[in-house]
Amino acid sequence: MAANWRTLDDMSGKAATGAAVKADGYGLGAAEVVETLYKAGCRDFYVAHWQEVAPLIPFLGDAKLSVLHGVSPLDVGNPYLLHPNVKPVLNSLPQVQRWLELGGSICDIMIDTGMNRLGLSMGDITAEIIRNLDIDVCMSHLASADQDSPQNGAQLADFRVAKSNIAARRYSLSNSAGIVLGADYAFDLTRPGLALYGGIPRTELNDRIRQVATPETMVLQTRDIRAGDKVGYNATFTADRDMRIAICTLGYADGYLRSFAENGRLQHQEQYIPILGRISMDLLCTNISHVTEVDESSWLTCIYDLPRLSAGTGLSQYELLTNLGTRFDRNWY
Ligand SMILES: *Cc1c(COP(=O)(O)O)cnc(C)c1O
Fold it and tell me: Does the Cβ of 95 fall within 6 Å of ligand 1?
């Protein structure tokens, strides 16, 4: 992950490189992500909710944590609202007003340049009240940077207009895929998420980004079955010959979904292991007839090549990461 951050930092040129760590660091564990990337040199982190702030405070050092959802009425009174390392990303004029009324000082601001999701609209950028803010980062978010879409250039043009109207210390537009679009899109700070965690939103990153998350599962039990025996719920698999099977501690409640059965494969010391029948909530069955040295309490590795699994399952690489369940031990090497 640190190597991925450094790669993205190189590609960001003179711009600094932050890290989106929302959704528990895309499912991998936000505290460890912040700790690791802080050591690599990252000083700008992003979460979505104020609830995500507390566990990260001990790891921030002199870094800043931005809360992308800004300040809603529910957030008033949040103990971290005025914390010196934390700032909201203000998204609307009511949020701007609320922040000023709360006595907030330094903040970030999000401009909507055509995604029509969060952010001040282009019509709001000349509003007088914005001049009362002390803005660190003025940012926008690209909707289609993972494609060669004319929307990228259109958003860039609008962001330049916003930049000339809004005084801020730094400007930021690019997510992971946006970094690939080059120097015009980098401004002062980039905000990768997916690619830090091994996701590959554009083929240009194929040989540069390394896999980060590799789920492993333990064999709870092995058994020998006969030709004609059935496996799992609804008996969707019938053995056409005698086989040895392994029952593993992994299921759809861990984010290893039923739809992975056809695409999912496991591995043990370079030997491929297919899944048999339905994936259960907490278990799956595999064929280990041809595999040596697998027994109760052996560990099998899930092949978790994000672009390929995404193509095979129809889930996005983001979903494949953020769905990883809370029952995994997350071991960092
Ligand atoms: C999630 C997010 C990012 C990171 O995007 P990736 O596509 O994961 O690189 C950057 N900026 C904002 C505003 C985000 O919400």
Answer: no
